[in-house]
Design brief:
Belongs to the peptidase S33 family. InterPro entries: AB_hydrolase_fold, Epox_hydrolase-like, Epoxide_hydro_N, Epoxide_hydrolase. Pfam families: EHN. Keywords: Hydrolase. The protein is an alpha/beta fold. The chain has one domain: 3-Layer(aba) Sandwich (Rossmann fold), CATH 3.40.50. 40% of the residues lie in helices and 15% in strands. The protein contains 15 helices and nine strands. The chain has a nine-stranded mixed sheet, sandwiched between helices. Helix 5 crosses helix 6. The longest helix has 15 residues. It is globular, with a radius of gyration of 20 Å. The two termini are 28 Å apart.
Length: 396
């Protein structure tokens, strides 16, 4: 397979991996779907604007499509068209992890390593449109980057967090850094992140020498104390985005408090029924995107979470971030080059001047379209940002 030549300095010996959900699990999902009953029509779920949650019409159509049209095997085929691996990592206290990655390895000796980090309710699949562009643009011998897209701990095909002790986002950052070092990138790499991945990227950039630069497309934070004193005026796009953020703060974050305060309960609820899972995460794909993504994208997201029993395993970051809002904490100020891409339909858009207060902001760009799932929604613009940022900060 192309783009599958492991870097010669790798010490971790990644194991090639193929996604192959057993037929019995696919059949079991369909039995669940066949038996599913939707809630009765109500004033709330008949609202077509979905201002109070997922609509009856959308969920009914999505369920019908999941049962009769959606083909998981085609999704598997697409995933497996990329090099997939399992990478073994042992953390500081001796816990063993197997981290799933999708990777495009370059054959160039001076290729720049980039790790791209997803969040919730996303997965490694968010970045596949970008990887498609990369494959079409470069050959293995001309690709200027090693692109590594892990399933972070607890997500999809990676090991879950410890069942014996609490796992923090900082713990997972340690695992990601060790994974990158084991892949042979001990001399340096760039971290990119959105959503939960943005916290991981910030920790990598502020606490690990091997991470040389950080690019974010999410930086949820409180207004800095000196924000009003800055001479940097907000753009009209930023002003509109902040108003959107103010409104969203009153309607969009009940889920996060549930994840942070009662993860055991919501984990049981969403693990028991695929339609409940589809409702919970489908709502976010609709609400947090600039334009509604294709239904197939949302069914991919629900299916991979369901088959891998992700939802109960992946909620631990919320409890941690509620207590440790990394983007607001001075100890996680990024002294290395920091880049930021601002997408106006991000659920919590952040003015570039605010982001500047959290690190050595060396590059930024404001977009007129795109939302929370930038790599998925606007892959061309997202990838262009990454390439432009890397070109501006990486010294050969």
């Amino acid at each position: 397979m192309e783009y599958a030549k492991i870097p010669p300095r790798s010490s971790s010996k990644p194991t090639p991996f193929q996604v192959s959900i057993p037929d019995s699990q696919v059949a079991r999902l369909h039995r669940h779907l066949d038996l599913a009953e939707l809630a009765p029509e109500t004033y709330e779920n008949l609202k077509e604007d979905e201002s109070v949650g997922i609509s009856h019409a959308w969920l009914s159509n999505a369920l019908h499509s999941w049962k009769t049209q959606y083909d998981w095997r085609q999704t598997e085929k697409r995933i497996n068209s990329f090099p997939n691996y399992q990478v073994s990592v042992t953390d500081e206290v001796g816990t063993d992890y197997s981290i799933h990655i999708v990777a495009l390895f370059s054959e160039k000796p001076d290729a720049i390593p980039i790790v791209m980090l997803h969040g919730w309710p996303g997965s490694f699949m968010e970045f596949l449109p970008c990887l498609d562009i990369v494959r079409n643009r470069y050959t293995p011998s001309t690709l200027p980057y090693h692109i590594i897209v892990p399933s972070i701990v607890g997500y999809c095909f990676s090991t879950g967090p410890s069942t014996k002790s609490n796992t923090t986002v900082a713990d997972v950052a340690w695992v990601i850094n060790s994974m990158m070092v084991g892949l042979g990138f001990q001399d340096g790499y760039i971290a990119q992140g959105g959503d939960i991945g943005s916290y991981l990227a910030r920790i990598l950039g502020s606490k690990f020498e091997e991470c040389k630069a950080v690019h974010l497309n999410f930086c949820g934070m409180q207004k800095p104390q000196n924000a009003d004193a800055t001479s940097e005026a907000l753009s009209k796009i930023e002003e509109a985005a902040l108003e959107q953020s103010r409104l969203s703060s009153m309607t969009e974050f009940a889920y996060a408090l549930e994840h942070a305060t009662r993860p055991a309960t919501i984990g049981f609820v969403l693990s028991s029924n695929p339609v409940a899972l589809l409702s919970w995460i489908g709502e976010k794909y609709l609400a947090w995107s600039h334009q509604n993504p294709p239904l197939s994208v949302i069914l991919d997201a629900a299916s991979v979470y369901w088959f891998t029993k992700t939802i109960a395993r992946c909620l631990y970051p919320y409890r941690d971030v509620l207590r440790s809002p990394y983007h607001d904490l001075p100890e996680y100020f990024i002294h290395k080059p920091l880049g930021f891409s601002s997408f106006p339909y991000e659920i919590t858009p952040t003015p570039i001047s605010w982001v500047r207060s959290t690190g050595n902001l060396a590059w930024s760009r404001t977009h007129s379209e795109g939302g929370h799932f930038a790599a998925l929604e606007t892959p061309d613009a997202f990838l262009r940002d990454i390439e432009d940022f890397v070109a501006s900060v990486w010294a050969p």
